[in-house]
Amino acid sequence: CLAIMTTSDLQSQVEPCPNETGSSVGGFARISGVQKRIRSEVDGALLISSGDDLTGTLFDLYSGQPEMESLSKAGFDVVCPGNHEFDFGWEKYRNATNFAEFPIVCTNIEIQDPVLASAILPSVILEVSGVNMGIFGLMTPDLARISSPGEGISVKPDLVGISDRMVRNLRSQGADLVIAVTHIGSENDRKIATSVSGIDLIVGGHDHSYVNETVEGPGGWKTIIVQDGMRGERLGILRFSYAGKGIQDPEWSWIWLDNRSPSDPDVEQIIIPYLARYRTLLDEPVGITATPL
Fold first, then answer.
1. Is 0.85 surpassed by the pTM of this model?
2. Is 142 exposed, middle or buried, given 0-12, 13-18 or 19+ CB atoms closer than 10 A?
3. 3-state secondary structure of 240
4. Strand, helix or coil for residue 137
5. Backbone phi, then psi, for 137, in 5-degree steps?
6. Which residues, listed in sequence order, are joined to residue 234 by a DSSP beta bridge?
7. Would you say residue 59 has pLDDT above 90?
8. Using CA atoms, how far apart are residues 276 and 23, in angstroms rounded to an integer?
9. Residue 256 pLDDT greater than 90, yes or no
10. Residue 81 · residue 183 · CB < 8 Å
């Protein structure tokens, strides 16, 4: 039995936070604790993020170091960047990539800066329990409109054509399974799945929704599409078998990352000093009013 574990749109939520029900959910340490348990139950596994892991004040303050260090310690195997990674310009995201101990993949982004360009691969093949998994990433073509990447960053919009080429490239390199890790929204994920044959799984992001469906494409090819909401409320898990052709006997489930979830103390220790300084800065007065508000 193999497993693909997935997250989407973590948005720098490094510690647990209350959701709309008041429950304390999420946190990178809980992701780490649960993924360790899942790996102990299967023959091989991958932990994948579909992007928007970095955003907001924490990212702006520390340039992605606490998030990337803790994601690395939490066992992430491959990540596709989302639009929020570029909210403060490509230079800040380039700094963040220095702390990533996993491959970052995005096929359709073009980057002039040679250092950042070398940090983001178009694709990667990872061997898991004897199965070669070819993985490529896709960024939303709306990047320049909804974020602030700065000069020298562009995104190719031909998602279907690029996906078709990547399937053929990865298959020719010996990939047994092909996984697209996308930050383009589920509507575009479905468009790719109905237009391109050869993608076994699409791990999506960007919509902040929960998706688990199978879409039929050319020649009857079936592609599984999943997405995992936002801020790490749940961890998505696809368990399946592989016997030489495609994903067999897929079973999809979500695990709530709540108080019942194991928490990895090694990841907690990475985050604690950053949050302490962060809260100290938030407590500093920014002004005084002599008139009651």
1. yes
2. middle
3. strand
4. strand
5. -120, 155
6. 256
7. yes
8. 23
9. yes
10. yes
